[in-house]
Amino acid sequence: MLSREGSYGFPSAGPSALKYSHGHSDSGSVGFQGGSVDSLARARPSVYSGTAGPPPGDHEEEEDDDYFDSESDDPDPDRFVNFSLLSHLAVRLRDKVPRGTHVKSSIPYPRAFTGKDIVSTIQNQIQRELLINHGVSTTDRRAALQVARSLQQQLFFYEVEWGQKLLQDGVEDVYMFLDDLEGNSEAHREREELPTAVITSLTRCYASSCSEDDPCYSFACPRRQTEDWLSTVDPGILLTLPESEVHRQTIIYKTITQEEQYVQDLDTVEALFIRPLLKASPPVMPAHKLDEFVEEVFGNILDLRECNRRLVEAMYVRQREQAPIIQRIGDVFLDAAREFRFAYPTYVGHLPLAEKRFKDEIESNADLRLFLEECSRQSKQQEARRLDLKHFLSRPSEHLQKYPIALEAIMKETTEGNPDAYYLAEAIEAIRNLQNVAQLRTFQTAMGKGPTGKWEWHDIVAKDVRESLSKAEAKRQSIIFELIKGEMAYVRDLENIGLIYVQALREGDPPVIPRERLNGFITDVFHNFAELHSHHRKLLDQLHDIQRDEHPRIKSITAPMFDAALNFRDAYMEYIPNYPIAAYRIDDEMANNIDFKTFVDQCIRHPDAHRLDMKNFINRPIPRLLRYELLLKGIMDETPANHEDREAIPQVLEIIKSLGKETEPGVQSAKQKVQLWCYNSNLQFKPNESVDMDLLNENRSLIHAGKLLRQPDTGFEWNGWTELFVLLFDNYLVMTKTKEKDGVTKYNVNRRPIPLDLLTLANFTDPPTQRSTSILRLGLGGGNRHVEGGPSPGSGAPDTATDSRLVYPCTIHYNGRLGGLHTVYTESQQARAEWKQKLDEAIGLRKVVQESNKVFELEPLSTDTFLVPSISSAAVPSWNHENSLTGKVTCSVPFTTADGRALVAIGCAEGVWIGFRHDSRSMRRVLHLKMVTQCAMLEDFGMFLVLADKALFAYHIEALVPSSPQSAHTSQTPQRVNGTRDVHFFSVGNQGGRTLVIYMKKKGLDSVFRVLEPVVEKINERSKAPASFTSRFGIRPARSEWFRLYREFFLPSESFDLVFLKAKIAILCTKGFEIMDLTDFKSVTIPLRDDGYERLAKRGESCRPMGMFRVENEFLLCYDEFGIYVNKHGAPSRNTGTIEWEGTAERVAIHWPYILLFDSRFIEVRHVSTGLLAQIIPGNEIRCIWDGRGTCAPPSAGSENFQPMSLDPRIHCVMAAPEPVQHGTVGRPRSVAQHVFELTPTMPLYPPGAPGSPNNSTYFHQQTVSPPQSPNLLPMTSWR
Questions:
Q1: Rounded distance, CA 395 to CA 1196, Å?
Q2: All residues at 6 or more sequence positions from 703 whose CB lies less than 8 Å from its CB, including other chains
Q3: pLDDT, tens digit, for every residue of 265-305?
Q4: 841, 853 contact by CB (below 8 A)
Q5: pLDDT score at 1217
Q6: Distance between CA atoms of 1002 and 41, rounded to whole angstroms?
Q7: Predicted model pTM
Q8: 3-class DSSP state for residue 1080?
């Protein structure tokens, strides 16, 4: 069945729809979608569908005489032809189509015809029918083409080669009828069947009571529709009316009829599409998406229906009041125009976006396509026409354009003096203005997309309006329009940042950027773009409101611009300085992430990206501010002298200009930060010599950089002087050689970076030296001559051998293990002075920062008790009543007595002193022992251990420091733990619930270890009177009663220390770290020395192991020169190699989460998890005398990571006083005080969980402004 959708502006015939039943499939159905017949004078399109098969036989039109002789003598041969029946058209086509001989594939076909012949024949038939019987004329051939294709699908004719493609309106394909006889005879045989279908657009009313003279009751009857106003008016009245009034009333009547049909169409939209779409089960799309789709596609179409319903009601009222002659209609439309003012511009302006959304959804959503097809099938049953949604969406826009035409036609027939002429003129003007506003809305809604988004000022302003403006005003309006149009494009680009990039990155699967870095990357790159979008969206809405209210001549836009400039200032102050960081993050990510590079390339090809990359989008806000300046200046230049903008625009310009100036410092700071990140990425270290200088720290800064010269180290140099590029950061001085590769400058580190904490300026005043450029230099310094007051005339070698330029020496001293004096040269006195100034500034700044963020500070325990002779004094006797020299301080241990006193025991060459902490005057010698080297306190057992002159003694602590009068009588006689004077060291710890004391003695080249366990009962026994002569002198028998032997073993290697682990012990020996289980004495040596670790093994043999500390699932092995992380099997666990200490560690201690390395010149504090340098504490002859061990509960070497930092001191050290003091009377020997300190943790400005101070992890976590992970220098896995 061929169905119709009111194609030509008139309704379908009949009170009911035709229905056919047939046995064939729907293969004959042919249709073209709504709106495709655009040239039908804004008529609604048709949808045809034909089916083959015999009719049911109940149609009076199809009888045996349906075949007509084209050569009949009947004066009206078309009298019995019904062109709405496909069978009748088929017969006419067979009779009328011109036949001839056509050649295809070199074969001639007689009695054939082309596709163009078929379409032309059908077009001639239906065009005449439309014109005569329906009053519609059209030259569009697409309806004829659809009829022809329906006949083709029902095999009324065939393509001579039996091709399967659809018939085209052209001469490429050749066709013949199936029933044509062979030969040239014009005769034809009868067909048993003809194609059957109804062409609803050509139907006449089929009601039995309907005739040309007496139309049927149906409003949709074509005959009724063709009735005019004349047939409803008394002929007597008609005779009294002039012809113009008859025409006027006819047009008014037709206008009312069209308005009724329009309202019906809007009702159909709701009934046939919106309601079923919302109630569809199953739904055609998710609920949240469905509501959005309905809102975007249908917009406020139901509001339009309400407006037009009120218009129809007003016209009905006017008909009832003034029938049959309507005197006034203009006022009705004028009121309607006022009501249309908001509804129609909103709908028409949104229509392009609605059509695009509808098209996109149709292409991607098969369920929606099926749903709309079902709606069309239902529409045929209801209205005998196939309805197309796309047509209905454009119906309001088309209908709005018809109003001025209809009203002008009424006005043309209105007689002079009729008051309705005024109202009609006003209504026409109002509706035309409405059209202009709708056009403006269309431009605004397009937001720069599509043809309507490309309109310029002259495209939406009528020519007569443009001509009425002065040249200056026209230019002013054009610039204002350009500013608004540019703002639309800018806002759309900000929206596209979120759609094209941010949303796509977040929803990427697999992720383009790893999830753990994605949020930080988005924040670093796009920053607060959403805040900018919010401000400019608000500004654009205000500009659009002004444009809609004042178009086509806008008075001023300065007020919203001034308000916006004040409001978006803070957002730009934050966004603009971030741009260098954002650009760097993009470049770095593209260089290191191929997926991200592919993603950016794909985004460039996005239709809305305009072939611009990500950096262009994020840079968009910066030139926009400059554009505002240019446009506002242009508007002011064309503004009349007495206009308010003359005063207002300069104020806006001042705000925007100041914004640019105020963001400059932030931009420079960000550029410097990016420069630091670039240096961090491009610094190249030699293998296994990398140093993480913490360049990713937020507080890091580059103080100075420039070229310096270095004199060759030897006398035989082919390259002469070396040019260095020296970087002075706020924490390190780095000497590099530059090398450019692939457009990127790499900085090859020439010497180990020097921490500013260990840098001093030695000499910056030496006279200049003449620089030699000889290729061959003989002898050290042969190329240099000191010049006093400049070079003398005539001196030196010829120009080919000597450069007349002078170089100025700068000598610095590096106080580290690999340090010494370094001399570099500048090319001018001014450069040397500048370097000195910058170095002084950097060193001073470093001291201030470190003082504010130090991890530990020195709290004195004793400052004047322990004295040693100065180097210049002669040898003096030991401590006695005549002098107070105590000898070298060697050990200490804090403890608390039973009565709660906090004391400290300090051992030195002349014995052991005990006193209150932080009170030097309370120190008293309690043991007169020589050569005390180690002490420990077992508080749970009330026992004090002392190693003196290689003999290990145990004392009751109550005997040394009585806590009550009764304990004062405790015997001071010690227990001698070992038999002979051969103990080198001992260690105290807990393991398996036991308190153990292990001491080491040498036997040849072996190390023999004895493991002892305290016997509580024996320790607490009341001491008996001395039983032997030796006991009177403080010596007990060789066998100790307070300890029992628990284990004994030996190690065939020299040992230095022993550390208690969680379940095992670690022996520090020449082989490395021997990990042993005391239960079975099984052991393993780490680090591994297998194949692949030869370099590490060789390095370990030349260094002495100093300590071992557990860090999560790793161990940090500390040697005197370096440290290395290993796994539980002893293999290096990090690919960054070793951590090189700045000094030579003579002792290593831990105060979680820091390790402290004691060089004689300074204490090096590093983070145990990363190895990053946190603090350097300078001093003189520094030694560690307590590392936290030597108590019943020493700090575990297996501490878990991220435990809170204890604020209780756990480390003691001693250092020589800065200046020797004169003690006693004149002539007495000079002595030097030894200051004993405890290292007290501070409350730093940044939490101590970070790998340094200031804390960069805290900063990056909170601010999420972080540089990318550099390939070689990662903040958590690099060492210095």
A1: 83
A2: 728, 729, 730, 838, 841, 842, 845
A3: 899 889 888 999 998 888 889 888 899 999 999 999 999 99
A4: no
A5: 83
A6: 115
A7: 0.62
A8: coil
